[in-house]
């Protein structure tokens, strides 16, 4: 240890008062020499211990020194170990809490000194711990003094902003801003401050300029997320966002000491956004180096917040980066990751000649592996798992593995061991920790179902738990999934922080339209991307015998053909969901105004939204944000005790589960509210089981609360066919009794069915009251779900019979007693038919929605399938044998005939698929879908009727439909029904020129964004816009009033 190093270390934090000496206990001296100890504020204050070493220490030595000093004492401890390098000192840090805190090495000494000084000045230990948890990270050296929580792409902040032509001048001009605080800082940034209330202000741009933001100036003892009496016992950020909504302002600016933050009030802003209260950009002026001062005016200045200011400019460039990152990830997942994972599961399943059913099962297994990996990767990058806080977790983390794989790829490439299984074991350890918890890693049990290996919960998980996969098998897939390559050819970990779950479908929707196949010969692709047999002159894309993915047309395509872009999703939510929410909030307000707060607490989450062809669930994730935003603002103004107490209980349980790490966590009420919205207000259905898993994954990531288990979503996001079962009680009655039956008889049967459904109410009440706050509550929720299903099993049997009667497969039923239903001799046939069609009976799947006084969903959203119900023989066989596409029609026919003899299994599958389509056509034609009786039924027509039937009186629909739904004769009866009993609230027509609406759809298509209200009070008029042929034209037209005309004009069409 050199005297020079010790003297230089002795000047570290020299501006801080009262340094005291400290000793290293238990004979730990040798590698480190203790220097000074500094104490923070309050009781059991933060300790900052300075030590010096003779050379760069290893991580274990730093952590061991921290443990010796901590030694069970209650005070949080930040250890700073300084060591000499050429030209000066560097620092390693460890702490401040946890059994095994993360160690950061090779840190800039000046930056660490500023962080330590700021932490010591915090008003108490908890504030200091929170500050250090937010500040000490691997990313701190990338963006010293900036904290980017999902607003911008970190890559753009690091590499784009400092390369601006005005960066140098702005940085020089902004240096004086670093010494300013609070209102003085905001004024220096070019704002005028108008007092709005006791705790909020409005910021104007310049003298008497336009309003730009609501501002909150916090005291040192207040935090943005913590409740405060000054803010009416809510959090400052919740209060500010609610006030900004009232003022219709786009931003919230918040200051606290040396910190300044900006939030957007829009629900769709931020490349890695979650909720509004969790998406922000912050600068800590005490930590921001002088040569980085340019960030302050570029992001936080008055000119930055103009509509065309630099904040928007940086955001747009961030979106471009995130889109490129997403596209690269999507292509690698489709072309590399999924085929590699499928090869793993097929190899370890010992299937030599997989059938179509085998390939479907293997594809599902591969998808579950992918989704588990994505969950952990997102959770680590978004600080939902303790990658930064816990050293043991960090050593086993996917992010650590990604860094190792990137380093290998940058050096000599991957050469993984063909025998060792250490990487797979590491991955399974992470999955097990998420499922069951791991106290050594500071991970509480999160459950949820996706990570379970219990066959009673998931057969796929049970099968995956038996696999032993070598490093050579799994590491190529992990490299493709977790590592990105930049424009300079350098590999680095994927920045999942820049990928919002609300755009999940952009990346993953193509997987839902894909099938797994085995190449019967070497394959290449034609100019359209369709797989065809390779010749000697072709580049081979897929070798014979390899697994590959293709869409339903045999095309190699990673995108979803009809994935709904964010602008269209937001349009439909603005015009349909928000209108239904207005009615819900009016009902709640009426209860509060009349002192019925207990009733208001019960009704608070009684708002039900569904997407019955949900795909990846992106409509539903966006709906969660809309609902949370409105309910959160309502709670700020009307703090209903029953709801507030429930959220406080959840928050306290989360902190209890986090243990010592909870001291660095502040959970905002809106975060808890969003979780409860997803659990209690959101419903989704899809025929594709992989879509259901993907939708649950997206919902879990988007509503994740550290310390709380993953919500039980098996009840609300389900697999099934939305069209083949029973939609409503009236539909069941119509199917069961002859058309000429008297109204009284029908009412009686409906009452019988209603009484049978009532048997589920106790279990449903228990399910609704379970907050999923612990592993036991998850088990209780699962038990209540199954108990409710069991309680209505008689109704399920009756509905199966009703579907069979409607098809003419079973004779009409005369006796509706429980015993008669259970002993009906045709029941097995009806149940088998329902299973074959995966018939979803809505009153059975979601009885709580249909047991309400006004039954049905408050809002139905989505983009239903647009396809005819038919099978094309040549196309069906060409998917299995791409070589057929290159043959003339006559030779195709003879080759199909030969294949039918050689591949009896495929011939049988074709016959089965053909029979299924014939049955499905009959179901649609004979079902509650008027106008389906001619030609090949188009699914969108049936979905349009289903949407209408499923919403309650006063409810809303917001869906994407083809132009023909609004114009063609085949949908005339549906339009007539809407006009006579509701209203087309908004019909915005879009011409898909150059694919601006749907990338891969026909560019001549005209597409409708259709919002509908149901109820006699809405009848009389129709609102229309468009058609618009570009996004620019669409946005320009939104500021203009729509065309409104009499409903009678449309009814005559």
Describe this structure in words.
With 1053 residues, the chain is of the alpha/beta class. The chain folds into four domains: 3-136, Trna Endonuclease, Chain: A, domain 1; 147-307, no CATH class; 318-499, no CATH class; 572-721 and 855-867 and 938-1053, Rossmann fold, CATH 3.40.50. 46% of the residues lie in helices and 15% in strands. The chain contains 40 helices and 27 strands. The strands form six sheets. Strands 21-20-19-22-23-25-24-26-27 form a nine-stranded mixed β-sheet. A seven-stranded mixed β-sheet has the order 6-12-11-10-9-8-7. Strand 7 and strand 8 (201-205) form a beta hairpin. Helix 10 (310-348) packs antiparallel against helix 16 (471-482), helix 13 crosses helix 16 and helix 20 packs across helix 22. The longest helix has 39 residues, at 310-348. It is globular and about 95 Å long. It starts with a helix and ends with a helix.
List the helices and strands and how they pair.
Elements (H helix, E strand, L loop, with lengths): L2 H8 L21 E8 L7 E7 L5 H12 L6 E9 L2 E7 L8 E6 H13 L3 H11 L10 E4 L4 H7 L6 H8 L7 H7 L2 E5 L5 E5 L5 E8 L17 H12 L3 E6 L2 E6 L15 E5 L10 H6 L9 H39 L7 H26 L9 H6 L1 H13 L11 H15 L22 H6 L6 H12 E3 L5 E3 L10 H9 L1 E5 L4 E3 L5 E3 L13 E5 L14 H28 L3 H7 L5 E3 L6 H20 L3 H18 L10 H12 L1 E5 L2 H15 L13 E3 L9 H8 L6 H16 L2 H9 L5 H17 L1 H15 L10 H5 L4 H10 L5 H4 L1 H4 L6 E6 L10 H8 L8 H14 L1 H23 L12 H12 E12 L1 H4 L4 H10 E10 L14 E9 L6 E8 L2 H7 L5 E4 H5 L2
Parallel strand pairs: 2-3, 9-10, 19-20, 19-22, 20-21, 22-23, 24-26
Antiparallel strand pairs: 1-2, 3-4, 4-5, 6-12, 7-8, 8-9, 10-11, 11-12, 13-14, 15-18, 16-17, 23-25, 24-25, 26-27
Helix pairs in contact: 3-4, 5-10, 8-20, 10-11, 10-16, 10-17, 11-23, 13-16, 17-23, 18-19, 18-20, 20-22, 24-25, 24-28, 26-27, 28-30, 34-35
């Amino acid at each position: 240890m050199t005297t020079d190093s010790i003297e230089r270390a002795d000047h570290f934090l020299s501006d801080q008062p009262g340094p005291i000496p400290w000793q290293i206990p238990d004979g730990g001296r040798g590698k480190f020499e203790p220097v000074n100890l500094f104490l923070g504020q309050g009781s059991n204050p933060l300790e900052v211990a300075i030590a010096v070493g003779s050379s760069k220490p290893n991580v274990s030595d730093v952590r061991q020194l921290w443990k010796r000093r901590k030694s069970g004492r209650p005070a949080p401890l930040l250890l700073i170990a300084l060591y000499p390098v050429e030209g000066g000192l560097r620092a390693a840090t460890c702490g401040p809490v946890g059994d095994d805190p993360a160690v950061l090495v090779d840190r800039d000494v000046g930056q660490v000194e500023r962080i330590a000084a700021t932490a010591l000045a915090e008003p108490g230990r908890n504030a200091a711990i929170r500050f250090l948890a937010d500040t000490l990270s691997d990313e701190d050296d990338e963006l010293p003094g900036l904290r980017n929580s999902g607003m911008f792409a970190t890559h753009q902040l690091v590499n784009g902003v400092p390369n601006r032509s005005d960066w140098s001048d702005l940085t020089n001009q902004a240096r004086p801003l670093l010494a300013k605080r609070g209102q003085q800082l905001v004024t220096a940034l070019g704002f005028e401050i108008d007092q709005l209330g006791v705790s909020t202000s409005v910021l104007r741009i310049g003298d008497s300029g336009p309003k730009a933001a609501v501002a909150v100036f916090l005291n040192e003892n207040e935090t943005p997320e913590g409740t405060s009496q000054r803010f009416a016992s809510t959090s400052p950020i919740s209060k500010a966002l609610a006030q900004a909504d009232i003022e219709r302002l786009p931003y919230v600016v918040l200051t606290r000491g040396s910190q300044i933050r900006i939030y957007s009030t829009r629900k769709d802003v931020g490349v890695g956004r979650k909720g509004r209260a969790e998406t922000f950009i912050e600068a800590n002026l005490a930590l921001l180096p002088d040569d980085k001062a340019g960030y302050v005016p570029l992001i936080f200045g008055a000119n930055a917040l103009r509509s065309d200011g630099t904040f928007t400019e940086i955001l747009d460039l961030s979106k471009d980066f995130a889109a490129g990152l997403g596209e690269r990830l999507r292509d690698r997942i489709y072309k590399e990751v999924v085929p590699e994972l499928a090869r793993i599961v097929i190899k370890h399943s010992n299937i030599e000649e997989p059938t179509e059913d085998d390939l479907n099962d293997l594809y599902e297994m591969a998808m579950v592996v992918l989704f588990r990996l994505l969950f952990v990767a997102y959770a680590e990058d978004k600080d939902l798992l303790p990658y930064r806080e816990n050293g043991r977790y960090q050593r086993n983390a996917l992010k650590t593995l990604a860094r190792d794989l990137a380093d290998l790829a940058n050096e000599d490439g991957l050469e993984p061991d063909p025998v060792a299984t250490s990487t797979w074991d590491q991955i399974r350890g992470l999955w097990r920790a998420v499922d069951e918890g791991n106290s050594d890693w500071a991970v509480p049990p999160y459950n949820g179902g996706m990570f379970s290996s219990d066959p009673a919960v998931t057969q796929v998980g049970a099968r995956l738990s038996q696999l032993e996969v070598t490093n050579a098998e799994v590491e190529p897939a992990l490299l493709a999934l977790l590592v990105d390559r930049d424009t300079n050819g350098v590999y680095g970990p994927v920045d999942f922080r820049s990928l919002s779950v609300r755009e999940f479908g952009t990346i993953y929707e193509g997987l839902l339209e894909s099938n797994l196949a085995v190449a019967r010969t070497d394959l290449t692709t034609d100019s359209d991307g369709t797989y065809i047999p390779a010749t000697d002159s072709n580049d081979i894309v897929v070798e014979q015998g390899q697994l590959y993915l293709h869409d339903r047309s045999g095309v190699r395509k990673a995108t979803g053909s009809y994935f709904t872009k964010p602008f269209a999703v937001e349009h439909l939510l603005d015009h349909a969901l928000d209108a239904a929410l207005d009615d819900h909030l009016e009902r709640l307000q009426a209860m509060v105004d009349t002192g019925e707060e207990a009733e208001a607490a019960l009704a608070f989450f009684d708002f039900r939204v569904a997407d019955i062809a949900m795909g990846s669930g992106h409509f539903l994730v966006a709906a969660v944000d809309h609902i949370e935003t409105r309910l959160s603002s309502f709670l700020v103004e009307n703090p209903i005790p029953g709801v507030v107490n429930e959220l406080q209980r959840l928050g306290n349980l989360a902190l209890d589960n986090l243990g010592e790490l909870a001291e660095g966590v502040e959970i905002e009420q809106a975060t808890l509210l969003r979780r409860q919205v997803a659990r209690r207000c959101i419903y989704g259905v899809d025929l594709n089981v992989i879509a259901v898993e993907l939708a649950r994954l997206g919902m879990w990531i988007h509503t994740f609360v550290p310390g709380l288990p993953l919500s039980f979503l098996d009840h609300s996001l389900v697999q099934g066919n939305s069209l083949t079962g029973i939609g409503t009680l009236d539909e069941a009655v119509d199917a069961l009794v002859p058309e000429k039956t008297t109204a009284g008889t029908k009412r009686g049967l409906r009452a019988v069915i209603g009484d049978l459904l009532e048997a589920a109410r106790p279990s449903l009440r228990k399910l609704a009251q379970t907050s999923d706050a612990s592993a036991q509550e998850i088990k209780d929720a699962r038990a209540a779900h199954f108990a409710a299903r069991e309680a209505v099993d008689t109704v399920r049997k009756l509905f199966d019979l009703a579907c069979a009667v409607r098809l003419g497969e079973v004779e009409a039923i005369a006796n509706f007693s429980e015993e008669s239903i259970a002993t009906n001799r045709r029941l097995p046939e009806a149940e088998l038919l329902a299973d074959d069609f995966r018939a979803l009976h809505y009153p059975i799947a979601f009885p709580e929605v249909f047991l309400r006084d006004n039954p049905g969903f408050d809002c139905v959203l989505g983009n239903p399938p647009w396809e005819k119900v038919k099978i094309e023989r040549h196309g069906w066989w060409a998917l299995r044998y791409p070589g057929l596409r290159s043959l003339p029609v006559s030779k195709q026919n003879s080759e199909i005939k030969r294949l039918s003899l050689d591949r009896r299994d495929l011939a049988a599958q074709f016959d089965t698929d053909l029979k299924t389509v014939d049955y499905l056509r009959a179901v649609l034609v004979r079902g509650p879908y008027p106008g389906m009786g001619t030609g090949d039924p188009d699914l969108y027509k049936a979905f349009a009727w289903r949407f209408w039937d499923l919403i309650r009186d006063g409810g809303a629909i917001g869906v994407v439909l083809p132009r023909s739904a609004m114009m063609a004769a085949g949908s005339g009866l549906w339009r007539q029904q809407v006009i006579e009993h509701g209203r087309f609230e908004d019909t915005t027509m879009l011409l898909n020129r150059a694919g601006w609406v749907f990338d891969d759809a026909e560019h001549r298509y005209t597409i409708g964004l259709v919002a509908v209200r149901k109820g006699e009070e809405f009848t009389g008029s129709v609102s229309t816009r468009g058609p618009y042929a570009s996004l620019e034209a669409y946005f320009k037209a939104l500021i203009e009033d729509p065309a409104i005309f009499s409903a009678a004009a449309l009814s005559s069409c």
